[in-house]
Amino acid sequence: MRLWAGTTASGLATWALPFVLGLAVLHRDLGAAGLGLVLAARTAGFLVAVAVGGVLADRHSRRAVVLWSALAAATAAPLLAVGLGHSLALMTAAAALAGAGQGACRPAFQALTAEIVTPERRQQANAAMTVAVRSSTLAGPTLTALLAAFLDVRTLLLGIGALWLAAGLVPGRGTARATGGRSPEELPDPSSDARPAAGSAPRAGFRAEFLEGIREARRHPWFLAGLGALVAVIALGYSATGVALPLISRDRYGTEWVLAAAMTAYTVGALGGALVIARLRPRSPGWAAFAGLGAYGVAPLSLMLPVHPAVVVAAYAVAGIGIELFNVPWFTATQREVAPDKLARVSSLDFLVSYGLAPVGLALIAPAIERFGVTPVLAACAAACFLVPAAAALVPTARHFGRTDPATRD
């Protein structure tokens, strides 16, 4: 419960920052160009720190990495408040620090889950964390709008800092430092991660340890296939609908209601998908997960034709359900199959590739729509969402997200 509370606080703080900065633009404390610069700095800080955080979380206590990462993000909040309306340079630096804290704690949280939760309950635990994040996304805008009626933007920024303090201080310790993040039953030698004795070989450098994480990822064909499918859906599916949905809501339906309803339906669907997968145990979990990921293709497909708005909303709900039918088993399988002392690095590779390529998709989709039109671009993106996960499901070990059928394991 402490781990869940800390993860929930970090997720709410991560979501809230762009929304609160958007309020600063409405209040004319920050310009649109300044908002873009601050958010770009935050993204850059995240991408750099997520790789560093993965190595640090495998070198040291995952609990300590969560603590110091969250403290860094918490420190950024008052700096953003001080810089608001006075120094864009300070806000940009603070946003980069906030992004770094967010990025460094993500792989550490994933690895800490594997330490604290027993293997048979990890799927439920991952689903519970997803439910918390989706619920925050659903209720967050209303809550923030209510708070904004009584509090100014600077106070809201300090509130984000308080959430990061909770994210750092609340979670439990996990496995003792001497295990290097490995649970006792997974340790062939309990002293294997102790400090090097005098005269022993020095620890490998950062680059070598990061590359060791990549080699570990390559040992799992299902992981590489899933990462490729996830990138295709994020870079093409998410980006296409993110750009096209507002245009179609305005031009085809003449109202912003379709945009708001579709995005709400996606979040509600994801919430429902997490609740379902908390209990569901498919016989072929990998194939079921890839089917869920491929279901995102119905979202761009629904935008291609002049259908009733309810069809678009329903398609987004299906896409939301499907994405969590993939996410939860994906995280659970990674925690189960990857070598425990390399788990944080492999998780950081997951976040680095999927989050890092998303802006590339957004940058390419808009020019593609201008050049070829909305319908052909949506058709290509829908096809990619359907076909790439289907191809990934054919990779060896993809059926069960592991080397063997779970029913045959000891």
Automatic annotation (TrEMBL):
Compositionally skewed regions (Low complexity) per UniProt: 189-201
Name the UniProt record assigns to this protein: MFS transporter
Annotated source species: Streptomyces venezuelae (strain ATCC 10712 / CBS 650.69 / DSM 40230 / JCM 4526 / NBRC 13096 / PD 04745)
InterPro entries with a match to the protein in the record: MFS (IPR011701), MFS_trans_sf (IPR036259)
Residue ranges of the region described as Disordered: 174-201
Entry's Gene Ontology cellular component terms: plasma membrane
Pfam family, one: MFS_1
Subcellular location: Cell membrane
Coiled-coil annotated spans: none
Predominant cellular place of this UniProt entry's protein: membrane
Bilayer topology annotation: Multi-pass membrane protein
TM segment ranges: 32-57, 64-84, 143-167, 222-245, 257-280, 287-305, 311-331, 352-369, 375-395
PANTHER family per UniProt: INTEGRAL MEMBRANE EFFLUX PROTEIN-RELATED, STAPHYLOFERRIN A TRANSPORTER
Keywords assigned: Cell membrane, Membrane, Transmembrane, Transmembrane helix
GO molecular function: transmembrane transporter activity
